[in-house]
Queue: 3 jobs
Job 1
Amino acid sequence: MLFWQILIDGFAISALYALGATGFTLIFGVSGVLNLSHGAIMVGAAVAAWAAASEFGVGPYTGALIGILAGFILAFATYFIAVRPIQRSKAIAESEKEIFILTATLLWGIIIQEAIAYLFTNNAKTVLPIVEGVTTVFGVRTPRNEYFTAVICWVAIGLLWFLVNRTRRGKAVMAASMNPRGVTLLGIELSSIYLTVWAIYGLLAGVAGILLGMFLGVSSYSVGPLTASAFSIVVLGGLGSVSGSLIAAYVVGYLETGTAYLISPAYRTIPALLLLVVVMYLRPQGLFGRR
Amino acid sequence: MPSFVTSRLFWIGALTVIVALVLPTYVSGYVLGLLTVAYYTAVFAMSWDLLFGFAGEVNFGPTFLIGVGAYTAGILDAHFSPGLSIWLCIAAGALAAVVGGVVLALPALRVSGPYFGLTTLVAVLMLQNFIVVAAGLTGGEIGLAVPDVISIDAKTNYWIALGFMLVSGAILFGLSRSAIGLILQASGQDKIQAGALGFNVTKHKLAAFVVSAFFSGLAGALMVFYMGTASVSTFVDVGVGVQIIIAAVLGGRRTVIGAAIGAIFLIGMGELLRPLGELATLIVSVIALVVILFFPDGFLGIIRGGAKA
């Protein structure tokens, strides 16, 4: 009973972690940007969906669409406000661009977070779920929404896989992550690839945020922890490795769920952090990273 | 015209110090209290700048060192007060932070860039978890009440904070301008080349961590005995660390003094804008973002740029 409970809950949470981390790692793999406003974009999308569905009463489906749109807009805004000006700046030395992008995206994330808190208060918000009710599988009563979350996450990840491996545009993105100069030599505009990646990222982060809002609820306080968990999952799996992130998301998701059920919810995050420290010492490039 | 620039900066600095010295006669205790906190934060930011600006280590966890120093001092005092002088507690806090700095330096010698950044972030989260879980010892989420304070007089506290900031600022600044600072800068920019030139990169980086940790821990411990309480939200939270990083980059990285200016600015602005409520942090963040995007050398860069033109 407890075993099935951990298995099912852990699966849904891990799927959500995986979806959230995938976009984060994609951006890093292709353009070398660690986007520390990640959590804020997820929460922004969720709050937009919540506001549309609950405050303006447009229903869960339209609400979710508006949330995805918000994710898109926020991702592009991040790119154009906090990332591109620094990448193109001549006043900042190449070696320092990394820390500047980190600081700028961090500040941008705080700006989004505070704007949300100002407009919609700090209260936790639960997005109107698309699927309601509970169902019993293996003697465990679980909200249907949990299964829905896991399914949507995996469909989104599957679509991303298809896009990257089977379409022309996706293959160009893949190539850019391996060798940006080679791609430009083939006559593909690198800046348009970046735009594609940020668009995909906005979609992934938006969907992940809305699902999180339906599943656990979000507030402007969840911004920091969300960014931190995406960051740790991505480093654990190996920066830039999408399959590594997926596996790491499941490792972290199950470690957290198992600890919460078997020991105490107060210790929830500790084993995952310990694992991360051990991996950083023994294998700094992450479980599946390439150097 | 570097001599002109430095002399102009020197005069601005001297003027600021004089203003800071005569301030207690003219302003209220409330303002002094605010500045006291700002001065301690300035030391946090300067210590961070030594690690990042010079050793090139992206340390996301300045609050790990601060927290270790603050909590060690606080716990010792809370459990052994009146038997143990608070100055001994403060010294123990600084020492514990140095040990923490060495622990933090170990991964830094193996990993770099975002990987090291994450290690430091994890260190903060671990410390935070430890404090919450070991609530019997640390006071947990409510915070740890410390029975002793340095002084209840706002002016005395202000003098101590000001003196401490000036002394540690002078030491850190002197260090950054010395041969050690240059070697650190070289190893931060190109570790292999600095090593090839015959400098012991490991030794210098370790020294940078120890110095940074010492001042962070000392400032944290002093601040505990100013506030009379230690809590996760004032000493350890990742948000506090973020503020320190923003302060250092905002004031002008790799300058030490810029970090102090940034810290005092951030705390002062936060207070001035407090009537606006939620909007205060928003406005401060927007200002910081604009400065970083358009003036990457920070406030000090703006002053220097003005001097050049």
Job 2
Amino acid sequence: MSAYKELFGKYVRSVSSDPPASVGTGEIWYNTSSNVFKTVGQVFSWSSGTNLPSVRWNTSGTGIQTAGLVFGGSTGPSAGSFLNSVFEYNGSSWTAGGTNPETRINQFGAGTQTATIGGGGYYEPGGNTTAANTYDGSSWTGITATPYATKGAGAAGTSTAALIYGSDISPSDNKDSYSWNGSSWSEEGPLNNTFQNGASGGPTENTAFAAGSEYPGNSTRFETYNGSSWATGPSLNTSVTQNRGFGSSTECVSVGGYNKITTVETFNGSSWSVGNSMSTGRKQFASSNFGASGVQNGWVGGGADGDDSVEHYDGAAAVQTISTS
Amino acid sequence: MSLFIYGTATNTGKGFFTHQDRLNFFLEGHPGNVWVVGNNEKGAVWLASKGGVTKTKEEAQAIVDAEVTASQEAWDASTDSEKATLSRPSNIILP
């Protein structure tokens, strides 16, 4: 094994107090006060974002923290409180966007702020729908109806190339997945396990993931899509439903869930580990799901039986103790 | 010494708590603007700086209970189809 000096040209220094994270980046040092080796790593955690313009239960979100979108949902449990309003987020403020043609809760959503696809969901009276729309940053355009009615379906990709999967309506449909090429829907390989109202996302249909939430409830399942078939991956540590997620099939998070838990798990491409928890417990909430830059710039907001709060998810340099585990 | 400080503070949005705050102390928000804060110097300073009003654990729990009860009553008054879509709010026990 090579010595640290041979690799880096200097010895591991001993210090009684840690240097600032900004100074210690790339170094290892020995802290003589705590008798441990330390370094600087990227630590992901949460900070408060700008509150949504109103409480939003069972709402949908797309985009990233600096270019996000929230649409649909409700302000409470009654059908009279269902929303068709849309708001765009720039990381600091929410501004009204083009009104969604659908007044529904639990729509699927994927894409960027200027290339979102959304659809399905539950409305009163009537039930669930196959209606779907795309958003270009200013207005919604109706597109070909989805092949099956959905509520709480997973989604990945953008308005011109997307994948939708699962649903919590019918056992005959909740393993389905269909791709959208900008003009029509095509059947894709089915999920291995049922999926509904859980963590989903991915910047492309070929990097989609589904975490937690089998029909009709909690699960530790994790599946990834490669463009033709779904593969079962490592399980979550905690069985969960009504959770949300963002990132891609190789780097993603599962956040929150029933019954308004703050739990966060992170996937690094090979395994799940427990991350820093949210500050507010959430279920059936809006989140970014695009994740072109992994999980950086993630956001969550609102949620069933919840408030209008928003949280940002970012990594930042922080001093960490080196352990052998 | 108690592990947590309990208080009420209005979440004003961006900047209310920072990434560094979350690394410095435990922080958990609950209905009724109730916050459970890690009982260390940085946590106490944070709550004070946000205009927080310190509560006993029992007082904080009572605020949360009242909010949850109101949510449960709203859910109980909803239609069967609405109930099938939205799960009934459950009780919250503060840590």
Job 3
Amino acid sequence: MTPATATSDAHPRPPRSVLSADVRFALVTALGLVLFPLLLHPIGGYAGLATQILIVSIATIGFNLLLGYAGMLSYGHAMFYGGGGYVAAILLVRLMPAHPNLWLAALGATVVTALLALAVGALTVRLYGIYFALLTLAFAQMVYFLIEQGKDWTNGDDGIQSIPNALVALGTWNIDLTTPLPAMNLGPFGNLADIKLWYVFAAVMLLIVLLFMRALNRSQFGEVLDAIRENEQRSVFVGFNASAYRLAAFTISGALTGFSGALRALYDGSIGVANAGIDRSGSFVIYAVVGGVQTLFGPVAGTAVIMFLENVLSAVTPAWRLIEGLIFVGVIVFLPRGLSTIFKQRQKNPYAVFKRSLALPTEEPDPLLKPTGEARPGGPTSIIETLKLGKSFGHFAANRDIDFRVDPGELRAVIGPNGAGKTTFFNLIAGTIAPTAGTIRYKGRDISRVSGTSRVHQGIAKAFQTANLYTDQTVRQNCRLAALASIQGAFAPQVFRRSTRLADVDALAERAMSRLELTGVEDVRAGDLSHGDKKRLDIAIALATQPQILLLDEPVAGMSKDEARKTEALIRNLSLEMTVLVIEHDMEMVMGLSDSITVLHQGTVLATGTPAEIQANPRVQEAYLGGHSEAELAH
Amino acid sequence: MKQTLSRGRFVAGTAGAAALTFGGGPYVIAAPTKEITIGLNVPQSGDYSEQGQDQLRAYNLAIEEINAKGGIMGMKIKTSVGDDQTKAPVARDNAQRMIERDGAVMITGGSSTGTALQVSALCQQKNVIFMAALTHGDETTNQQCHKHTFRRYNDAYMSAQSLAKTLVTRYGTGKWFHITADYAWGHSVYDNITAVVEPKGAKTIKNVLTPFPGTKDFAPMLQQAQAAKPDVLVLTEFGADMVNCLNQAAQFGLTKSAKILVPLVDEYMAKGTKDNFDNVVSTAPWYWQYHASKYPGAKKFVDAFSAKYPGLKPSNGAETAYADIYIYKMAVEKAGSIDPAKVIAVLESTKFQFTKEQEWYRKEDHQGVNSCLVVEGIPESQRGPGGFGYAKVLEVHDGGAVVQPIAGLQCKMEPA
Amino acid sequence: MDALFQALLGGLVLGLIYVAIAVGLTIIFGTLRLVNFAHGAFYAIGAYVGLVVAERIGLIAGLIAAPIAVAIFALILDRVVLRPFYEKDPTAQLLLTFGIALVVEESLRLIFGATTLQYPLPEFLKGSATLGPIQYPAYRLLFAGGVIVLLLLVWLFIERTNYGLIVRAGIRDRIMVQLLGGNIRRASSIVFAMGAAIAGLVGAAASPIYSVDPSTGFAFLVPSFVVVVVGGLGSFWGAVLGGLLIGELQSVTTLVYAPASQVIIYLCMALVLLFRPQGLLGESEVIRQS
């Protein structure tokens, strides 16, 4: 589920040792960081390279938060890396040449790059794929231009040399990181004195960043980010503000990269404009992809391997860049496993498809589900109402002049021949698309311009015509995500707290699953469910958002007759507690189930009435016979 | 005890030297051993890679020669090579590896001022000598000079002075149009040239800056030059950019309608521009045909170079690379130590002669004082085999006459 | 005034080069939904093959050999590496083609060296033509004319042939193309090879104007992507409009403040992406699919 670690499941195992998993993780990582420069020595590396690798790894981790976790390929991260370096350098040179303080410089750079990322992210996160990559590249090129032209501050393309050696203030100490460790001969592993305090400092920083990322991956924030990457549309319609999550990820990513850039400039004692250039942006892509974007240590490993090659192989052969390119392509072509999730690769079906027969629906009302609201059937207030609602695509009017009104608690069917505009109408109500004319009122308030996500939180939920699920996640996880959005709100950037601590989320998800008779398949991957179970899971997800109106777009389409009848019973049961709008072609179901029916024809309302009235309406018969067989109505 | 520290570390000199320098740098001094390491940091890819590769040939030749004769004070020279890609951060990382891993006692190479500045700053910090090779921007030995950095190559100031002195009589009052690479070196060349020719009556019509790096199409700039009908067109571009720019200038007929100046040229740029280089005036610190005919040291170098690399003649970047190794050898032997402080002291105070006239480094800024040639291109048909031999020498300017006066320097050298 | 006229003419020629590269990029995207970061590599291979053949046989032979060689390379690439990636996330395609571009660039560097090469024009093409107040290099005008003819041919291919039908359908209705099933595979290979061949031809034809080095491909790739995005990914006329717009913008900016002539195209692209993400002539449906 969360990409970071295999251990991050919803129900963690009880710890086996006295140390908590986090402490064990920290200890093992720290041990690795202690051994790293020593092991690098015999294969041609050196302590300085080890230090560089750890510092740059932080930037790659930041970059990878976007690529691996949010599924966004930035081609402009050099603006944060170079930007962070320049800010740190300028802070030291201009503001504290006499008392260079590393914390102030690095944190100042981090704050500035975080703000830069927030601003750039606000403009870019609504784009995807190549568009997102190119827009980030465009902003990076602008930052590069400013650095190059801003000669008074940045010294143009000469760069800033001789940055003051910043000290680490720790209590009353001021630590000089260029101090070597005490001399001690370690045979083939070099001498301890080759290692400067800078390495220790970089290792501590990297360890902190890794712990932070580990927590973030397993946190509610990481879980939602994962969900958005896997299925953004579904995420929006369970009530997550996807843009806000992407923006938060972008900002954290930029800040981490800026922090890394600042450390690198301070370590080098100099910075040049190439640190903000397009090649630098490309290098993060290479590091992350080679290392494996779906793993916590991937970015570190990729950075280490490629930087090692660059530094050591380049001294041996001019073909080193070709080798690097071949490794890169090889990883993409032959090792896609690490990349599987961002590429939405369908895994081979590891489970048999479940085929179950449904039990009879339970009849008791559900205490967890919200009551329908203030108004009761027959009261003066409609729950949803549209006035002259219209939607045109170019010259084609998919919906026009729709006046529509549903009372609270009603079960309304929307029918009509193919192409009548039924799905468009549902999309308008759910907020998937914006109307080009007219208004939508929900409980008397105009919601025409309210986003789909907000409508979910106000109580309008939708199940899709084609089941829209998180196919790589289990049934339970699907429902938990919806429940999480409902309980925690559209944007709850909890980067440390895990959602598994939230009992009410579990309870809500359980209820939704049991209401749709999904017991027994809770831990099956959604993509492996049978068709009928997929459709019911889609409804369960909608239900877990605690709706007051449920929009069901052909809920029984493709089901066997038996399954369809049982699903119909489930829907009837749900309609006891909420308003239900249903699009359906199964006329037997429509006539048996609905309180009233609206017929759409050629994008507008042809008739509204009780099932009996509609059956008797000659215009309806004509509309259907015009385009369809008589059998369809008579069915 | 210290000797066991690492593999590539050199060791040399006397016990006294050890006492003096211990703690100052990454090297360790004890009893004489067999090897020292020199870092060769040159571009083997990127826009300036032709220059870098030629430098590498010359470095290897010089080191081979020296090692064949017993090395420097009995120490064989080992090399640590890096491809700096003409990217400053890469050059810096390479130099760091050469120093920290391989224990390089001296770093040399580079084909741009941008890389030279970063390596220079690092070498100063690490107490390692940096013999900057092909860097033409003034900063290397002026605004951003360092105690450990020596640059023998002519700087932009010297080229501008030389060009101006040669041309001002003929074009001094004409209209000058500049197309300048928008980075430090380009600005420095432009400032220098205009500062010299404008007081003589030359009129600068316009200076169009070209984005650096990455400009492929110079047509928009060249069109402006064409419209302005200048007497002199100065193309301040280097390496592949200069080749592109001059070739495109020829397409616009500018090589015929205006006198073209290129501030700095070498064999490879001239080869790339073929006949378009005919009649173009430029400067070069060294030119194999000219120097081989005048100085035995140069002839020996050119012959050895062509013997080792059949069909090739050394470019001026190769020559400075070759000389840098010999100069360093001379300095170490005279100092009797590889202690940087002592080597620096020798370099600051010694006159020497290898492939040119007698020359020296100024102690105020560590700029090499040696001659600057003003050359004029000849057509391809008149060139030698392989396209080598691209120009005739118009005038040779004495280094002392064209170098920036000490009074005008902004160099603040670190104390010894 | 003359200066502006000159800048506009220069921008037109530059723009046409961008258009020529971008058209291949855009029809490949439109038909295969492939975001091809390796397109610049096709240009570079074409330039090198053209140069080598031209130096031995002649310019015309180079112009014939280059697109053929690049088309063959593209077909092999399509068959061996790219095919499994056509239906994947565009991010995977971006990464893969970025990697291929890297490998091609470095292979060219190893084969031909980093040296800047240029094919010298035959004497009769070296002259310049007089256009009103200005002199313009004849070969550049010839090149511009050639690009216009090439564009016309591509347009006829799209509008008049069966393969063109698939290109058009691909741009408008991906699902319909998929329904056509089996023969679509061969058609898309042909479209891919054709888009690549155009880039190769342009590379060979432009090598007397711009000298060639291994990084040439990338240098033209990025502006071409900008062109395609500004015009509308997948749109033929979008590529034409975008290319001319970017060419003119760069040329005129050089007149005003030359150092900004690179960054200006990114500024232009950012504005388009922010206010009309589907591009000037793009269909909004495309952006959701990519």
